[in-house]
Amino acid sequence: MAQGSWLRGGQQQQTGPKNLRYESRTLVRGRIFTWTVIAVGAAGLFGCHGRSELGPTLSKQTPTVNPTPQVFADGPRLGSIANVTPILERPEKGSKLIGYLHAGSTVARATALSGSVGCPNGWYAVYPRGFVCVGESASLDPEHPTLLAMATQPKLDANLPYTYARTRDDTPTWEASADQEGSVRALADVPSRSGLAVIGSWQALDEEKKPLHLAMMTDGRFIDTNELEAARLSEFKGITLDEAQSLPVAFVVKRGVNAWQLDKDDPRKAQDLSFHYKVALDGKSRTVQKERFWAIPGGKWIRQKDVTVIQSRSDFPDFVQDGTHWVDISVLAGTAVMYEGKRPVYATLVSVGEDRMGDPNAAAATIRGDFPITFKHITAVGTDARRFADGVEMHDVPWALELSSGQWLHGAYWHDRFGLGHGPGNIQFSPYDAAHLWHWAGPALPQGWHGIADDRPDAQRTMVSIHK
Q1: pLDDT tens by residue, 285-308
Q2: CB-based contact 258:267 (threshold 8 Å)
Q3: Parallel, antiparallel, or unpaired: how do β-strands 325-330 and 463-467 relate?
Q4: pTM here?
Q5: Using CA of residue 307, residue 312, residue 313, residue 314, what is the dihedral sign?
Q6: Which of 37, 108, 211, 248 fits a disulfide with 311 by CB distance 3.0 to 4.6 angstroms?
């Protein structure tokens, strides 16, 4: 289904991200309504009915401990039935977090247990590494209600992993009623203009027996579809750099900008240039009537004050070695350049903290320094939805890369002000650019995982240099 087609209107952390909340409750408590899963990007809908019991039936047995089991990619599967299902380095509580699953996802597992200390139903090794505790947050039953209800999984080959919507007004969220099958009860409101991903369409009755047409959120809550409209996504994307196209490049970051024709010392306006117009520069420039102009293709020129120009670097951070993947971010200019060693491979505009060059301790400031990416998420699961935009909640923030500083690089599906100071301090990319960066930055995410810690040596991790 096309984006929004059913909507109205159109410091390094050793134990994982400090903002991740482990929620072990099952998301669907055995009360399954008649439901339809939205297949994001698919042509239509398909129906399904869940079972009424909660969780798998597990036999009681004394497990055989196998600390180094063999796991095959096509082996039997284990599913996540919680918002966060931790994947630990060893089969014991308190072990290092190396990644996690998200509700509805499945991953190949070993056939034998790896012990049950601290996990009565047993620890299972999963592919390609790590261990998961079966029980409150994971199940071996492929027909578990939560796995059925949360069947729509993120699309990793799209600009956004889900279908996204915005709320029209303050509106309640809902959860399945434990007392009345086919009914829901109201929970806390989501503020007006908040954003979220939706993964299913449901019919249910509210507490007054009135029918509701509900969209399912990725945390298992519901929201009235009449209170939603399709998110208006930015189509902006940066410039791929290679042998044929390198720095400098320029981007228009305001409206009402023109190209110019320079006849001797008499500048004349030529064609209009759209907001976010991008162009390669050959480095040629002129100063006419005390204004600097850059040459662009077609014999035209653009004024320096009308564009943001990204030029080649002549000096590099000490951590840069041949092949180092790193991102060069200028807070003042609102730009980001992806590098492999000293070779730029992609240039674009970003939104930084609204405070820009103010007090670095201010709420809306972007912290400057060199930081490794410590955790990689498809979406920022378990993180306070109020930390990504001012005055609203932004759920399911896509292509989220967590830095050792505690800040994030992520996609923003709620605005188009890239190249301008905008948010509470994180580095925000357009959906296309965020997806491009996410796939380029290591490590690779194993199939079925929703997030992974980057526990590689420092020299192998993707670095982010944030400067003036």
Answers
A1: 999 999 999 999 989 999 999 999
A2: no
A3: parallel
A4: 0.87
A5: negative
A6: 248
